[in-house]
Specification:
Elements: H1 2-21, H2 24-33, H3 38-63, E1 69-71, H4 73-81, H5 89-108, H6 110-116, H7 121-145, H8 147-163, H9 168-184, H10 191-194, H11 207-235, H12 242-257, E2 264-266, H13 269-275, H14 287-301, H15 304-312, H16 316-326, H17 328-338, H18 345-357, E3 360-361, E4 364-365, H19 366-382, H20 387-402
Antiparallel strand pairs: 1-2, 3-4
Transmembrane segments: 12-35, 41-61, 68-85, 91-111, 123-140, 171-190, 202-223, 235-252, 287-311, 317-339, 351-383
Pfam family, one: BenE
Protein name: Benzoate membrane transport protein
Length: 403
């Protein structure tokens, strides 16, 4: 009995630590990219971590399933690509709230959720790949611009990827922290920055930013996290009630937005840890591992200020480089799904190119235009003229050839 509990609890702790360590730099970098101050970024990281812990505990306890909630990793990547600069964070928070409301609506009105999941897989995946691509290039850029910082973390990442894949990104993070400490003579963090504190943000609803950030954030969160999250759970024999899960994450995302958080959703990778036999061989007890992961998130959240402070002392490209290593697997999966159907590859590539370009047209960012271009190309290439009309043009040609 003691061994069973230890296995469940330890798996949850590992899932919580891995879930935080592999992508918190991405969240901080994303929030700062859309104008958050260091205090606001720390507040956003704090509220996201604590709320995803509480939501995980609540859902796992209520349904006795190993349901795990996480922040939107592709959403954080989108923030980096769509960065608006200083003075725009209140408008970004307005976009976060629109995204949160749409997630909640998907839970409350099932037909809306079904419509969202019908966004063509090649288009959604190609857009996500385009968002992730510039971030995944960052390790190369960092290794050239700051070789004494970039190369150690890339080498450690590659070594651990061979022997202990789960710890490759946390190991790269530790290598980067060590390299920064050595080259700068130590890391000095002000005490005021590490004390957990929430910073409320009054939202501003900017129509252009809602279209260029809020809508794409909603789509990548649904297509890149929630849909895979439900799929992973079904793989392990758990049918998560979509209405409850989406409503809870939508409400939690709404609360987090007022304190700088971008979006919450079902976890996929960490859910695979708590829902698998690695947590426990008994299918009915694995929910305890998710509760353990939730508690771990809440505890880690109290150190969000310190984590943010560590990020702020590093060159921005190095921070993005760590995030790039964290989302490398997501990039591979997105490209594979985008190019899976041969008949849609041109549309997928067009979507990818526009999304990765970083263009802004009439104040609207590349993620939105990628969806538009991809949809237009897919419809155009998939369109076939009516049979009657095609005969009218084809038959004379046939007759002419016979003559």
């Amino acid at each position: 009995m003691t061994t069973t509990i230890f296995q469940l609890l330890s798996t949850g702790v590992i899932a919580g630590i891995a879930g935080f360590a592999t992508s918190f730099t991405l969240v901080v970098a994303g929030l700062r990219a859309v104008g958050a101050s260091d205090v606001q970024a720390a507040s956003g990281l704090l509220i996201l971590t604590v709320l995803m812990g509480l939501a995980t505990i609540g859902l796992a306890w209520r349904y006795r399933m190993p349901i795990t909630i996480a922040w939107s990793t592709p959403g954080a990547a989108l923030l980096i690509v769509a960065g608006q600069g200083d003075g725009q964070f209140r408008a970004a928070v307005g976009a976060f709230l629109v995204c949160a409301a749409l997630i909640a609506v998907c839970g409350l009105v099932p037909v809306v959720g079904r419509l969202v999941t019908r966004v063509p897989q090649p288009i959604a995946s190609a857009m996500l790949a385009g968002i992730l691509f510039p971030i995944c290039v960052a390790p190369i850029t960092a290794s050239i611009e700051y070789p004494w910082l970039g190369l150690p973390m890339v080498v450690v990442w590659l070594l651990l990827l061979r022997v202990a894949p789960r710890w490759a990104v946390p190991g790269a993070l530790l290598a980067a922290v060590a390299a920064i400490a050595v080259t700068s003579g130590g890391i000095v963090v002000a005490e005021s920055t590490v004390v957990p504190q929430l910073s409320a943000v009054a939202p501003v609803f900017d129509p252009l930013l809602i279209v260029s950030l809020g809508i794409p954030l909603f789509i990548v969160t649904m297509a890149g996290q929630n849909v895979p999250g439900f799929t992973v759970m079904r793989t392990y024999g758990y049918v998560v009630p979509p209405g409850s899960a989406l409503t809870v994450t939508g409400i939690a995302s709404t609360v987090s937005a007022f304190f700088g958080g971008h979006a919450l959703n079902l976890a996929a990778i960490t859910a695979a840890l708590t829902a698998s036999e690695e947590a426990h061989e008994d299918h009915s007890k694995r929910w305890i591992a998710s509760v353990s992961a939730g508690v771990t998130y809440v505890v880690i959240g109290l150190g969000a200020g310190f984590a943010t402070a560590l990020v702020t002392v590093a060159p921005p490209i190095v921070v993005v480089a760590i995030a790039g290593l964290a989302v490398m697997g997501a990039l591979i999966a997105s490209i594979r799904l985008a190019l899976e159907a041969p008949e849609h590859r041109i549309a997928a590539i067009a979507t990818f190119l526009v999304a990765s370009s970083g263009i802004t047209v009439v104040g609207i960012g590349s993620a939105f235009w990628a969806l538009v271009v991809g949809a237009v190309v897919m419809v155009w290439l998939g369109w076939r003229p009516p049979i009657g009309r095609s005969r009218k043009h084809v038959e004379p040609l046939a007759e002419h050839s016979e003559k």
